[in-house]
Design goal:
The chain is of the alpha+beta class. The protein folds into three domains: 3-122, Butyryl-Coa Dehydrogenase, subunit A, domain 1; 127-235, Butyryl-CoA Dehydrogenase, subunit A, domain 2, CATH 2.40.110; 254-389, Butyryl-CoA Dehydrogenase, subunit A, domain 3. The protein has helices at 3-21, 43-55, 73-85, 95-107, 110-122, 236-252, 257-260, 266-274, 284-314, 320-342, 356-368, 378-389, and strands at residues 127-130, 146-149, 153-160, 171-177, 187-193, 199-204, 213-224, 228-229, 276-277, 280-281. The chain is globular, with a radius of gyration of 22 Å. Bound molecules: flavin-adenine dinucleotide. Flavin-adenine dinucleotide binds at residues 129, 131-132, 137-138, 162-164, 370, 373-374, 376-377, 379-380, 383.
């Protein structure tokens, strides 16, 4: 059978399965939270999570032997499109599916893959990422949290910061110092149970009153030796590989024009708040900026899709830093435009005087400021692209 015929057969199979398993009540609904990222779902969302996880289509291209979908990138593309057509969104995600699972597939032992992957695929466990420390952000290899080798276990002391979702997390993966005399070759990649004695999580309260980040303190935490991923003192390369997957997933998650446009219909916001002059937007300059943004978003979506397809075959490359920088720039640009369109309605933070959508726009605009910091700052990504992609010296 020709490849195109194969894909048509798969398209029918996917349609049928979705028809039988996707609750129609959830069509075009966004999940109330993400399983695998702290949310405990209920009702139809829980049923959808269980069915999707059982089928392995929450991670379509992961090997079937660990519970993944076992699909080819082409089939995964067909599945994604078929899900979009009926407004079916996966409620399973988070650090596990985005970066930790893909890294484990690259470097984990058979036993480690069997141990961790099935729960990631089903969204049963929530993972957090223990990388940044007070003195180790961009210069991550400066990390000091020390996991002392005690023979049959490591004894961990130190702290992490900006740990997203640590309060809800079941487990942490991260990079920890195991040799104080060697900066890069003295780092190991470990997992740890967040319920271990000696782990303390302190939420960092933001201006919004929310606490998406935390400080995590370790005092004499016993980490079993079996939680070491890769070899002792050789975790730096694993840590860096995970960051490539992180950037790839940030870039790939936006590989769809609809998603790049955010959850707002930017043209509709413009019409509502700026108004129309006949069949044209009344503000000519904003009209031009919207056209530019949409062209950029479309080009970005196509490039993001190409990067995702290539990564599915040969793994993520350092070039994904280009996409991460472009994603942050586009997202921040779009949020700025939305705030400008709102005029003085874009001053609302809370209270009855503003619509819910206006308050949400303001909060999302402020959140977008972090886009050029999270997943590696724009400056650091540009440095990496200069060094690893363009081969420029002196960076
Ligand atoms: C929304 C969000 C979620 C996050 N979630 C997590 C998480 O779950 N787990 C985790 O471990 N961390 C997380 N972080 C932390 C994040 O990884 C760091 O904030 C980031 O790596 C930058 O480190 P820093 O904040 O220490 O800034 P610094 O490294 O101190 O950088 C400060 C400024 O200096 C610039 N700079 C630094 N070095 C250079 C250089 N060599 N050349 C040019 N410019 C440079 C940077 O670009 C930046 O503008 C999160 C951050 C954000 C914003």
């Amino acid at each position: 059978m020709a490849a195109a015929d194969d894909l048509n057969v798969f398209r029918e199979e996917a349609r049928q399965w979705l028809n039988d398993n996707f609750p129609s009540s959830l069509a075009n609904q966004r999940p109330p939270g993400i399983a695998g990222f702290g949310a405990k779902l209920s009702g139809d969302w829980k049923a959808w999570q269980e069915r999707l996880g059982e089928k392995g289509w929450s991670t379509p291209t992961w090997p079937a032997e660990y519970g993944g979908g076992g699909l080819t990138p082409e089939q995964a593309g067909v599945l994604a499109k078929t899900m979009r057509e009926i407004g079916a969104i996966s409620p399973i995600g988070g650090f596990g599916t985005m970066m930790w699972g893909p890294t484990l597939l690259d470097v984990g032992t058979e036993e480690q893959k069997q141990r961790y992957l099935p729960d990631i695929i089903r969204g049963n466990l929530h993972w957090c990422q223990g990388y940044s420390e007070p003195g180790a952000g961009s210069d991550l290899a400066n990390l000091q949290s020390f996991a002392e080798d005690k023979g049959d276990h490591f004894l961990l002391n130190g702290s992490k910061v900006w740990t997203s979702g640590a309060l809800e997390a079941d487990w942490m993966y991260g990079v920890f110092r195991t040799d104080k005399s060697n900066k890069y070759q003295g780092i190991s990649f470990l997992t740890l149970d967040m319920k271990s004695a000696g782990v303390e999580v302190k939420p960092i309260v933001l201006i919004s009153g929310q606490s998406p980040f935390n400080e995590v303190f370790f005092t004499d935490v016993v980490v079993p030796k079996e939680n070491l991923i890769g070899e002792k003192n050789l975790g730096w390369d694993i840590g860096k590989r995970l960051l490539l997957h992180e950037r790839q997933s940030i870039a790939g998650s936006s590989g769809d024009d609809d998603v790049v446009g955010g959850s707002y219909d930017i043209e509709q916001v413009a019409k509502d708040y700026i108004g129309m002059d006949g069949d044209k937007l009344a503000d000519g300059a904003m009209r031009e900026r919207i056209a530019e943004q949409k062209m950029f978003a479309h080009a970005y979506a196509l490039t993001g899709r190409r990067f995702s397809d290539e990564a599915a075959v040969s793994g993520p490359s350092a070039a994904v830093g280009i996409l991460k920088v472009a994603w942050a720039k586009d997202n921040q640009n779009r949020e700025e435009m939305l705030i400008e369109m709102l005029g003085n309605r874009g001053l609302g933070w809370e209270g009855d005087g503003f619509k819910e959508s206006e308050i949400k726009t303001v909060r999302t605009w402020l959140r977008s400021k972090a886009n050029s910091i999270e997943g590696g700052t724009t400056e650091i990504n540009l440095n990496l692209v200069a060094k690893r992609v363009l081969g420029l010296k002196g960076y």
